[in-house]
Amino acid sequence: MKNKSSILTVLAVVLAASAGPVMAADDGKGKELSGRDIAFDNKKGNCLSCHAVPNDPKAVAAGNIAPPFIMMKERYPDRAKLRAQIWDSTQANPKTAMPPFGKHRILSEQEIDLVVDFVQSL
Amino acid sequence: MKRRLSIFLGCLLVVANIGAYASPEDDRKALLKHYKQILPNVKQADYVLGALALNPDAKEQYDSIMMFPPFVNDVDVGRELWEKPFKNGKTFTSCFRNGGKNVAGSYPYFDNGVGKVITFENALNACLRHNDEAELKYGSNELGLLSAYAKSLSDGMKVNIKVEGKDALAAYENGKDYYYSRRGQLNFSCAICHVDNAGKFTRSEQLSPMIGQAAHWPEFRAGTELVTLQGRFRQCQKNVRAAPLEYNSEEYNNLEYFMTYMSKGLPMQTPVFRK
């Protein structure tokens, strides 16, 4: 019974999401961008260009240049360290392929904070 | 004793120097070895196929498209340009050995007289100039189509680039530096994608190895959209938010010289289809 109701909830959410123009568009226009929006947007973080996000069905056509985002809390228990990695990963590894999102102002400091929260939740 | 020591030190210096200096041939061999390691299933001759060599399905599709290439009419426009007599009655064939057959694989070369790298497009324009005709604009469709036909006369020729002498080597080294330097907001070098990560995917695009990349130009994307090698440099630079350079700039010509040397010995495929 519990299972059934949760399936119903999921269905309701899916239906609501596909209900069309009344809902906020998923591209984030007209509302605050979430960490996930910023991470997935190819004009912003574009993380999917190199990282897969195996547990997110929206993360399609992801690259494999860098490790997938899984168990991030375990891999980066220290939030500051994860943030530093996104801000300028050449500090930890001069040969990295990862763009220095903070140092080169690819994202703003606030955007980086949102992305860090999102990535840490994966 | 003192003499012995200095001989010993002298030997050490020689050894150190050899270690520090890598000739173009050393560079090419080291790169080949690297690709053999990370792409063990790709034959060296197939590097010219680029990303197609990494994806059998895409290669099959390519083979069927190349049976009736969608760009034949475009190359025909290039052929008309090539065959049209100049005002003095001569044609392009008068400027090239062998009427222009099997020559393009020796470009770019370093011209010690002018102290610069000469690309195949430079040679086409030099021919126009020597015959009192107006040169074609670098990056123009006209020059691209002319080069497509002219290079088709060298289809299958093995790339045969020489780097001889101090100045030629300096141009080669300059191209190599450009290739390995990071630039642009996203901080990429060409090598990060095409050397370190060849075979991997960025989104759904698989990265081709650099060896072979310079041996199949121009290409016709989506059938008929002409892209030259330097046009592709510009696209890759825009993709990583770096400022693209001008067509025929000295840096791009040196980069082309370096990259074409790395494809030495591979048979050219000119021109080709790409997605």
Can you identify the CATH superfamily of chain A? Cytochrome c-like domain
CATH fold assignment of chain B: Cytochrome Bc1 Complex, Chain D, domain 2
Quaternary organisation of the protein chains: heterodimer
Structural class of chain A: mainly alpha
Number of domains of chain A: 1
| Amount of beta strand of chain A | under 5%
The averaged pLDDT of chain A comes out at 81
CATH architecture of chain B: Orthogonal Bundle
Count the E strands of chain B: 7
- What share of residues are in beta strands of chain B? 5-15%
Task: Provide the residue-averaged pLDDT of chain B.
Answer: 92
Low-confidence parts of chain A: 1-26
Helical residue percent of chain A?
25-40%
Largest interface comes to:
A-B, 17 and 13 residues
Q: Radius of gyration of chain A over alpha carbons? A: 17 Å
Which CATH top level class of chain B fits?
Answer: Mainly Alpha
Q: What is the CATH level 1 assignment of chain A?
A: Mainly Alpha
Question: How much helix is in the residues of chain B?
Answer: 40-55%
Given helix and strand content, the structural type of chain B is mainly alpha
- The rounded distance between the terminal residues' Cα atoms of chain B is 70 Å
Number of structurally distinct domains of chain B:
1
Task: Characterize the structure shown.
The complex is a heterodimer of chains A (122) and B (275). In chain A, helix 4 packs across helix 5. Chain A is globular. Chain A has a single domain, classed as Cytochrome Bc1 Complex, Chain D, domain 2. By secondary structure, chain A is mainly α. The N terminus of chain A is likely disordered. Chain A contains 5 helices and no strands. Chain B is mostly helical and 275 residues long. Chain B has one domain: Orthogonal Bundle (Cytochrome Bc1 Complex, Chain D, domain 2). Chain B is 46% helix and 7% strand. Chain B has 10 helices and 7 strands. In chain B, a hairpin with a 2-residue loop joins strand 3 and strand 4. The termini of chain B are far apart. Classes of the chains: A mainly alpha (122), B mainly alpha (275). The interface between A and B is medium-sized, with 17 and 13 residues.
